[in-house]
C-alpha cells in the first residue's frame, strides 16, 4: 500500500468491501458480519492479509472460513492467520 492507510481513506474501505463481495452467499454473509464488526479497526497489515485471502477462489476461501482447511504455504503467515480467526469468529 502507499502512504494513505486503509483507515484514513474511506474510498479504500469501500473498495475493500466491494472486493469482498463473493459468488457464494455463505462467504458474503461472513464478510458482511466481519465488516460490520471490524471495518474501522483494521490495520494496514490486516487489510493486506484480507486482500491475500480475497485472491482465493470462492470454494477455497469458504474451506478456510469454515475451518475445513488451514492456511498453507504463503498464506500461513501470522497476519493471514489472525485475520482468518477474526473472520471465523464473527
UniProtKB/TrEMBL annotation:
Domain of life: Bacteria
Gene Ontology CC annotations of this record: cytoplasm
InterPro entries documented for this protein: SDH, SDH_sf, SdhE_FAD_assembly_factor
UniProt keyword annotations, A-Z: Chaperone, Cytoplasm
Keyword Cytoplasm: yes
Gene3D superfamilies the UniProt entry points to: Flavinator of succinate dehydrogenase
Protein name from the UniProt record: FAD assembly factor SdhE
Pfam (any one): Sdh5
Statement: the UniProt record of this protein carries the keyword Transmembrane helix: no
Localization, UniProt: Cytoplasm
GO BP: succinate metabolic process
First-listed, main subcellular location of the protein, grouped into a coarse class: cytoplasm
Species in which this protein is naturally found: Paraburkholderia largidicola
The family this protein is said to belong to: Belongs to the SdhE FAD assembly factor family.
